[in-house]
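Folded chain entry
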Amino acid sequence: MISIESARAAGGFTVAVRDEAGVYALADLSAYMNGRLAPCADPAVFSTLRAALGAIVWPGGFDIDPDNVFAAIIPNTEEQARVTFDLIEDTTMLHPSEHHMPIVSVFFGLIISMFFDERQHNTPHIHVRYAEHNASVNIHTGDVMAGSLPRPKLRLVEAWIELHRDELLANWELMKAGLAPERVKPLE
């Protein structure tokens, strides 16, 4: 099996990859963005892809078999893939908790996920990513506990928390019990 060493979202459902031999190519993953990978079909989620452990992964534990990626390679795209790597920031490093941080909602470019670790997390909160911004937001108060978000995006998160606080707190209890959280309706 060929290992993917690096990956970048390249527009639509196309990804630029570099394999362990240093070969670059573009792959069209549109055929795989259904079924268990349907949550990754949201452009805001798809763009968070990374290479880890030889495969392409997304936060929340989603991944795609490298054999499927290599089967979707678009011929003669090495130069375009190299340009993509030159233009797009390296996001190949995964935070260790991201494999276990399920996405509960996505809206307006905001990716909302939850993670519970009894050694570190006592206050019910969500993790919010938007572009290069990351923040942990208290479910009870809507206050940013760590990180930052642009003020207009934080207002959207605050409004969404207000509408779905009971669901989020129920998800927190599910996660404390070792269960996966439920999806929460996005802000419309």
